[in-house]
Design goal:
Layout: H1 2-19, H2 24-53, E1 55-60, H3 68-78, E2 87-90, E3 94-99, H4 102-110, E4 123-126, H5 134-163, E5 170-172, H6 176-179, H7 190-203, E6 209-211, H8 225-228, E7 235-237, E8 259-261, H9 266-270, H10 273-283, E9 289-290, E10 293-294, E11 303-304, E12 307-308, H11 311-330, E13 339-349, H12 357-360, H13 372-377, E14 380-381, H14 383-392, E15 396-411, E16 417-429, E17 434-446, H15 452-455, E18 460-471, E19 477-478, H16 505-523, H17 527-536, H18 541-553
Parallel strand pairs: 5-6, 6-7, 7-8, 8-9, 11-19, 12-15, 13-18
Antiparallel strand pairs: 1-3, 1-4, 2-3, 9-10, 13-14, 15-16, 16-17, 17-18
Helix pairs in contact: 5-7, 16-17
Length: about 575
Amino acid sequence: MSGRNNNRGKHRQGIKQNNGGGGAFSRFTQKHKEKDDDEDMGEGSNRRQQRKDTHRIMVTGFPTETKKETLLTCLQNALKIPLTPVQFSIDNKHAVLHVNKKLEANSLINLSGLQFNESTKLTILSLKGRNPPPQVAENKKEKGKRDKVKEEKMLLEIFVQQIYDHANNALDLSDLQKRIPKIRVDFRTPGFVESLFRILKDKTPAITTINFANNNIGQLFGFDKAKSLGLNILNLSFDTNQIKSVDHVRYLKDLNLRELVLTNNPVSQKTEAFEYRKKISKTLPNLQLIDGYDIKLSSFVPIRSSFCDTPVTQSFADDFVNRFLDLCDKNRSGLVHAYADNAVFSITSYPKNKALAPYAFHDRNLVTKNGYEKRAEHLYVGKQRVVKELCDFPETKHQREGLVVDAFMVKGINTVDLITINMHGDWIEDQGRFRTSYNRTLLLAPAPPNSSALVNGFQAVIINDILHVTIAKKHPIVNNSVNTSTTTVTIPTIAGPSSSPIPVTPNNILIQQQMVIRFSEQTGMNLTFSEQCLTSNQWDYDKSLINFNELKLANSVPPEAFIK
């Protein structure tokens, strides 16, 4: 027993020793265990390497409760290559695919925006950089925009409430970007204009006058929203902006405007003032003031038929005009017999046009010619000089059809009666390529005895000739009865060589120029407005000064009158 027990003890000790690594069995089992462990470690390493080498793609945008098979089928049908995801997990909002090939990953990412059903689109992106889903980034961006818009709207509301003139229902929004630098002022965007008018409707519903000066406004699209929002805007100023065309005012036609200011815009600087105001008044018929000027609808009436104060004047005018126009068309050098020795001639043209180019060099438009030196340069004095300039113009063929002739007697200096003839008509030049419309004013005095004028059939000579040419247009003719007084008038003649010489226009012009300069210095107005004031008061200096003081006291003199 003791032997068996000893042997049993020795056996246990041997096993224990073998388990400690001392025996062959122990070495065998340990070898196989290490082999198995190495295999297990290799498989784990491969799995980790496999996960590391795959591309993770996230898919969002599909409806909740979408099955994995449905989503996978949708993606596979849209791809041109087989889709073999190593791993594919899905929940109610997101799906994550692991794919081995970069081509598969890029192909999936390119499917972003794929229509999943009628109402949803898929958003697909790589999770390599752990980018947030695009809709999350988009939401943050949109939220930032909304917050910015709210902040700008609040600043604009506060600004409007602070500067609103309740007494006059007026608002000065000039130079808005500089005055509120924290907001983005862009009148080119209709949304900004509409948003502004909505603020005015909410904060200043009774507003009637707005000043938009110096805001770099180039067009008026969107300003019609003021009417649809219920605002009753009567007066608008767009002074010192970039409006280039009269056509833009069509966006204001529903506003029922009473006054519009477009001074210091390209449209008011490149367009003749009368024509530009006429176009605006047609688009906005309720306007009373344009750039501070009263709109006289009577100045836009259609052309009237010929008018003469007496039948004798009419007969004389018809004869003189026929002779004059015949010479203009057939023998222009012969016009030397129709002018007085010290005759004066000037011409203006509008607009700049190829057809009117031959007249542009001689143009004496007082609106564009600044300074009396330039104006005097194109004032042609003396019949020889006048006819020389006329001969430089293109050959013409005056159209007698539609010709309007007004003629009437006027009292001259030293009791010499004069005749004024106003002509309006068309002529054709360059073999019918161009049709030009003209207005011509002739001031006539009796022809001196034994003069070449009488020898050539002219009972009177031209002492002043003012010609304006423009592009021909069709005008309606209003039929008016000619005023034919029963008083008979004869064309006066000069008694003899010892008679006093006929006063000529250049002297009068120099006197008027001196009056304009003096009036400008006394009132502070520029020469253009000074001349307008004197002209409207028949060159009565004292009367003009009284009229100016009354207008100035009533704040009715436009600001541009003092810009020199």
